[in-house]
Amino acid sequence: MSRGSAPSGPWPPAGAEPLDIGALYEALESRGVGYGPAFRGLRAAWSRGGETFAEVALPDGVPHGPGPGHDAGPGPGFIVHPALLDAALHPIGLRSERHDGPARDEAADGVPLPFSWSRVLLSAGGGRVLRVALRRDGPDTVSARITGEDGRPVAEIGSLTTRAASPALPVPAERFLFQVTWERVTPAAPAPAGRWALYGDGDARLLPHGAAEPLPHDPPTAWEAFRAVVLTCPPPASGNEADADGPDSDKSNKSLDGSTPPGKPETVHTTTAAILDRLQTWLAAAPATDVPLIVLTQGAAGPGDGPVDVAGAAVWGLVRSAQLEHPGRLLLLDTDDPHATAAALPSVLAAGEPQLALRNGALFAPRLTRPSAPARHRAHTTATGGNTPFGPDGTVLLTGGGGVLAGVLARHLVSAHGVRRLVLLGRRGPDGPGMPELTAELTAAGAQVTVTACDVADRTALARTLAAVPARHPLRAVVHTAGVLDDGVLEAQTPGRMSAVLRPKTDGAWHLHELTRTARLTAFVVFSSAAGVFGSPGQSSYSAANACLDALMTARRRLGLPATALAWGLWERRTGLTADLPETDLRRMARAGVRGLTTDEGLALFDAALALDDPAPLAVRLDLAAHREPVPPLLRLLL
Q1: How large a percentage of the chain has pLDDT more than 90?
Q2: Do the beta carbons of residue 436 and residue 402 sit within 8 Å?
Q3: Which residues contact 278 (CB under 8 A, 6 or more apart)?
Q4: What pTM does this model have?
Q5: Cα Dmax for the chain
Q6: Which of 44, 43, 46, 42 is nearest to 18 (CA)?
């Protein structure tokens, strides 16, 4: 194309195939090169042979300024806006030979950035939209033609040499912290009319009497007459929620001596067992039709600050995994007003979302976002000058003491947080694998370590262990890492198998919660899992246990107590839970964009999570570039 002439032909050029740019900027940022909103101008890209074509636009709200031949506006005048020129080069970060997103040098994993320019010619001013044709002339050299929307030449770059940004550029671990927020959704399609059926022994108070027709326990084959079937869970008024008493209440004091069994973990077990039975019966008997089963809860999930139904939250975790195993057959709905629920059911179906919360007549769907991070803990100063919620004078209790991650964390608490008194709880106590070596290492680092054999799910034994903490060094922090797995698809689960997974996580956390209510804790951290938020095929019981932990920490925070449930993604280092993880599961997680966290990243995320206002953040190394259409609803705001 000669300078000053207008190119002919369609745009994009014939034979050019579209490239996926949806997660380009997230992928670049995850590799150390971040672009602010004004510079994220790439709108579309195509490839043909050795050429890449792109369209870039100045984002709304960024003034172009007065320039020759185009609109006058506030700010300086640009012939070609710098952000547009920069965006015109972003397609260099796309593979031209493959249509799978951002380029990655397999050896160095560097990001190509402009380094040396030559033979740059400016023809005329460009508007807010530019078209770009890039040609690769060598391994690290490109040439470019830039035109306006009308095809008139704007600039030519005869040669641009790039250099790969060093892969050693640190990516802040906070990039892998997320939180669940709730976005209001409005159904695009009209709400369908129809009849509704109520199924099982659920609490009918969640639906007004007469709003739905009852179905027997073993559903008949006539459910096609219904628009949807509703399975309800008992609401928190039945005693599932965390107690509303403050940390100094009499009830808290009565719980300290272990003479008043709380009963709450049993509610989690019985509720999840009942819902498991109904789900299994429904999925086995009902054909795979367009009639979904809506699992209805109250206070188990969603925005707001009402009572938290921790048993209902466990049901949400259970159903999230079941949704992945049986796509399209199950919906989750949490309500704040049973009387408004029946009227909202048509909109629930029309919304096209697998999980919804009904609040004041409006529907909200869960989305992952990046959290803000205001400090909230009563901080202490470490020997290295940093702040920590773990004071040097008190005792820190760490459960799951025989696990790999517990050992990593114990070393971190001593070396980075200045903890000098640790109580390590594990089912095998001093006989746990590697425990003598860990104890010797921590002692050499200046810590006093007590190793105790204790099952945290045994409330009486746990109460004895807590009573043994010396008054001169009172308990100041709890870190609960205990957990077990028992994988199996929903149809293979039993109440016994589910209870075995719930016990160490949920029962143990609840006992710790109640037995330390009057202690002046500065930190209460439980190790949860992203499986409770995303769901995980074949891990319905594990998802239930972790969703329950997240809800319990939310309830504690609303009582004014310290609480953080850190929902972990995969760690690169194999642990007791992931040592036998099949390669098929690892490949499935990789396809979903989940990468392994290094130990250093995990510990940095642990520290960062303690400063968040969110009681249940996620720590997951997400490769957003791996996601393709359709975008998972949970990731729609991130993508």
Answers
A1: 49
A2: no
A3: 199, 200, 201, 202, 231
A4: 0.75
A5: 90
A6: 46
Query: Token pair of 208, please?
Result: 């007004």
Q: Which long-range contacts (CB under 8 A, 24 or more apart) does 111-115 make?
A: 111/28, 111/31, 111/32, 111/33, 111/164, 111/165, 112/140, 112/162, 112/163, 112/164, 112/165, 113/33, 113/162, 113/163, 113/164, 113/165, 114/89, 114/160, 114/162, 115/160, 115/161, 115/162, 115/163
pLDDT at 162: 87
CB 608 within 8 A of CB 371: no
User: From CA 431, how far away is CA 564, in angstroms rounded?
Assistant: 30
Q: pLDDT by residue (tens digit) across 448-488? A: 999 999 999 999 999 999 999 999 999 999 999 998 889 99
Buried b (16+ CB within 10 A) or exposed e, 172-191: ebbbbbbbbbbeebebeeee
Q: Mention every residue, 6+ apart, whose C-beta is less than 8 A from residue 241.
A: 299, 307, 308, 309, 310, 555
Residue type, 462: L
Say how far apart CA 131 and CA 129 lie, in whole Å: 7
Q: How far apart are CA 89 and CA 403, in angstroms?
A: 48
The answer to whether residues 197 and 345 touch, using CB atoms and an 8 Å cutoff, is: no
